[in-house]
Specification:
Distance between the termini: 12 Å
Strand content: over 45%
Radius of gyration: 20 Å
Helix content: under 10%
Number of helices: 0
Largest sheet: 3 strands, antiparallel
Order of helices and strands: EEEEE
Structural class: mainly beta
Mean pLDDT: 87
Shape: elongated
């Protein structure tokens, strides 16, 4: 599974004045960073529904996974 990376070099070296994290039950959460130079940076993380399944053999001990499914 490939994970994307987002770099924000313009915020490197800035001094943080305040950091606030807001939670939203429907959309996820947002982070707001205010810097001492008057600029701010906002980022958000949204919850995405995920469909996953596992075919396994149960019984005593650890189940034997036969196959994992993921959309």
């Amino acid at each position: 599974m490939t994970r994307d990376l987002m770099e924000c070099p313009e915020v490197a070296g800035k001094t943080i004045k305040s950091l606030k994290i807001y939670e939203d039950d429907t959309d996820g959460c947002e982070t707001l960073i205010e810097f001492t130079d008057g600029t701010s940076f906002s980022s958000s993380v949204s919850y995405q529904p995920a469909v996953k399944g596992t075919l396994f053999e149960g019984g005593a001990g650890t189940p034997k996974i036969l196959r994992n499914y993921e959309l």
